[in-house]
């Protein structure tokens, strides 16, 4: 299976139009052809035993590439169904066929029957559509424009091969050129990602500084020497955290400047406990500013939060953060 869908693991690819150097070389969009070539080789050889309906696979791929939503519920459901089919039918079938192929016999009719590859829930047509949708979503997710004509041309070219070894002499690209196309895109993608990161570092730092300056003007907001802004929303008791090793039990909600909630114990339905030396510096310092039973809002500069690296998809580099926290308990470390 891995070889059969290797394109999807290679990431998205697209290069400028160049002439390739194999026997049938013509002006083609090299990466579009490489994408189709990789998929075609998988379809015609890697997935040959699955006996997919080529026309359904290719037709569904074209349709999804044109109109499908790569973030939609439909493709998420299809990917889940593909995993179900793979584990319940495809893998048992492939393992049994491999065992049969290892048996030396002059009477192949005596070999054990292979398990079913398709059933009422996973018909040949339905599985073919799933493969087509998945491939269509993969190429649609490519940030740079691809040429569908050359993708289809490569798929049809690979269908004329009798064996994968014929690719270098009969296709419009060699397999080395195909791998080179993927590698060049990977390098370009890394350069693009680095440029976007550098831009985000500057823009987020400026936006965070502006946001914190506005927050500082709000009534009741105070500022620590390190730059944390805070407001006591509800006074607590005289019991407070004093040591970095103290363990606190809290309910909290974390937001970015645009109001996006990236983490919330309220949504999970239970408070969380942790030592203050195991969290971001802004929390280590900020949770010593309120007593048990109190509530505090913290606005934490990026350098005291997640810095230039950010955290996950929701917290970008150099982003300041807001936390609303209720301190429920403080306990010394055991």
Give a description of the structure.
This protein has two domains: 6-173, no CATH class; 208-331, Chitinase A, domain 3 (Roll). The protein is an alpha+beta fold and 334 residues long. The protein is 45% helix and 14% strand. The chain has helices spanning 6-10, 30-46, 54-67, 73-102, 124-140, 148-158, 167-170, 175-216, 265-268, 281-286, and strands at 17-19, 27-29, 222-223, 229-234, 247-255, 261-264, 272-275, 295-300, 321-331. The strands form two sheets. Strands 3, 4, 5, 6, 7, 8 and 9 form a seven-stranded antiparallel beta sheet that branches. A two-stranded antiparallel sheet has the order 1-2. Residues 1-25 have low confidence and may be disordered.
What is the number of beta strands?
Answer: 9
Distance between the terminal alpha carbons, to the nearest Å? 51 Å
**Into how many domains do the coordinates divide?**
2
What share of residues are in beta strands? Answer: 5-15%
Notable traits:
334 residues; disordered N terminus; single chain; 10 helices; alpha+beta; 9 strands; Chitinase A, domain 3; two-stranded antiparallel sheet; 2 domains; seven-stranded antiparallel sheet; elongated
């Amino acid at each position: 299976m891995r070889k059969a869908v290797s394109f999807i693991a290679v990431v998205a690819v697209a290069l400028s139009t160049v002439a390739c150097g194999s026997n049938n070389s013509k002006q083609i969009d090299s990466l579009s052809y490489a994408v189709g070539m990789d998929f075609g080789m998988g379809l015609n050889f890697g997935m040959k035993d699955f006996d997919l309906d080529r026309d359904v696979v290719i037709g569904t791929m074209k349709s999804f590439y044109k109109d499908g939503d790569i973030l939609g519920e439909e493709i998420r459901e299809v990917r889940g169904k593909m995993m179900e089919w793979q584990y319940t039918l495809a893998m048992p079938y492939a393992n049994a066929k491999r065992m049969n192929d290892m048996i030396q016999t002059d009477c192949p009719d005596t070999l054990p029957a292979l398990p079913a590859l398709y059933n009422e829930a996973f018909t040949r047509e339905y599985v073919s559509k799933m493969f087509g949708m998945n491939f269509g979503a993969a190429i649609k997710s490519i940030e740079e424009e691809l040429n569908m004509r050359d993708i289809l041309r490569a798929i049809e070219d690979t269908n004329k091969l009798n064996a994968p070894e014929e690719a270098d002499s009969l296709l419009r690209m060699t397999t080395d050129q195909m791998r080179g196309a993927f590698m060049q895109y990977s390098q370009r993608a890394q350069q693009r990602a680095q440029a976007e990161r550098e831009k985000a570092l500057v823009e987020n730092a400026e936006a965070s500084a502006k946001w914190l300056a506005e927050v500082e003007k709000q009534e009741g907001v105070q500022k620590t020497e390190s730059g944390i802004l805070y407001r006591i929303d509800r006074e607590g008791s005289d019991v407070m955290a004093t040591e970095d090793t103290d363990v606190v039990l809290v309910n909290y909600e974390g937001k970015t400047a645009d109001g996006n909630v990236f983490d919330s114990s309220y949504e999970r339905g239970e408070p969380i406990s942790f030592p203050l030396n195991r969290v971001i510096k802004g929390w280590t310092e900020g949770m010593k500013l309120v007593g048990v039973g109190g509530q505090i809002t913290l606005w934490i500069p990026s350098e005291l939060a997640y810095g230039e690296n950010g955290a996950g998809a929701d917290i970008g580099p150099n982003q300041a953060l807001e936390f609303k926290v209720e301190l429920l308990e403080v306990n010394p470390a055991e």
